Amino acid sequence: xxKVIIRHEWRLLQADRTxxxxxxxxxxLIGYAFLNGSVWARKQQAGITQYLVKSEAQLNSYRQQAxxxxxxxxxxxxxxxxxxxxxxxxxxxxxxxxxxATLPLAPLAPLVVGEGDLYPSAYRVGLQAETxxxxxxxxxxxxxxxxxxxxMLFLYPLLICALSFNLLAAEREDGxxxxxxxxxxRLRTLVxxxxxxxxxxxxxxxxxxxxxxxxxxxxRLTSGDVWGRLLVWLAAVLGxxxxxxxxxxxxxxxxxxxxxxxxxxxxxxxxLLIITPALVGLSAAALYPxxxxxxxxxxxxxxxxxxxxxxxxxxxxxxxxxxPEYPPDxxxxxxxxxxxxxxxxxxxxxxRVDEVEARFEAELQRQQQLIARVRFLSPAILLQEILFASGxxxxxxxxxxxxxxxxxxxxxxxxxYPRIFTETALTTDDFDRIPRFAYREEPLRHxxxxxxxxxxxxxxxxxxxxxxxxxxxxxxxxxx
Length: 480
Fold this sequence. Notes:
The chain is mainly alpha-helical and about 475 residues long. The chain has helices spanning about 1-15, 15-75, 90-95, 140-145, 150-165, 170-175, 175-180, 185-215, 225-255, 260-285, 295-310, 310-320, 335-375, 380-390, 395-420, 430-435, 445-470, and strands at about 100, 120-125, 130. The protein has one domain. The two termini are about 25 Å apart. Mean pLDDT is about 85; it is low at about 130-145.
């Protein structure tokens, strides 16, 4: 009997132009979201590539100049000076030709931008390190980007509600529901068949349109990690869709009119996707208020001034205590001693700035912990966490990058500090041994562990709503 119901509902849906118009509009939105995400991803990738090429070209230019000077020294045309020339001076190379630690695009960047456009993607290393940040329109960052994650979070439920608000009301109002149930047909079988064909249609459309968009997006489809993330993405989206179908089943089981069902589902969409996340965010900000960005900048300035007031001998003593590999009585030139003082103060500034930022980070972490405890109040919060994490658009990926950036900065210092302090000229072989940064993506299994609670919660809410809806059908009256 279930197959008969599904075939009958399929014929009705085929004749319903409104349903196909809604699906067509949804397909257009998915296409536009893919296009928008792909354009942004290509722009970001081009910027990162251009920056890396420029840095390598500058370093290679110094290497060629150093090779020419070495050749002239070998031929006896020039003598090696006490202080190396600029192309071979380690301080010159470390400061003005320093490479950068760059964060590559997230594995599913065309699908979900997430928070990826909020954080710097390149950090220069060296004795005078600086942060490379891209300037974005603040309003655009506040509103966010129209990507596939946005479509799935906000518009996908509307598609399901538009196809499912009138599962039983029309037959009940026309008086045909009682005739249907007079046949050897259970109400539960009828409703399950109606939901099943709509779910197959919607899920099929989502999977087909998403995979079609993936084929035309700049994703590295040869990577097994990308396919694993796509499977997680689709599983989360299907669970989210199942929740909204289950919610529609619950609303229809209450036995109200079609207009009332539509209004109830619209209210649920507003409460679960707009009001609840907003209240959760406001509550977290009120309970654990974050200091303003201006306070953080002012605190950095104060710390920098305090470090500059430390006596030179004390600053050097702290540096040598932290770096026993550099003997205090080593053969340093006067310029090398000045560089040691500069490096010592830079390290102390960085250490104190990290302490200041850690206090700000602690408040943010408390906010995140509160949101994690109440995230089950809204399936949208659960889905967003899964999509951002699996797609690589979450804050945790940037923290993973910063940890690797710090290790790379240490490798850079270990390579250049001895040469800078003793003013030892760089050879062409030294140029080849300069450390390069290579970002290592966090394994997918670690990411799955991080959001497994949200994944289980999302599917659990869907099953709970579905079972509740089926239970409510027992009290459903086929006569209005």
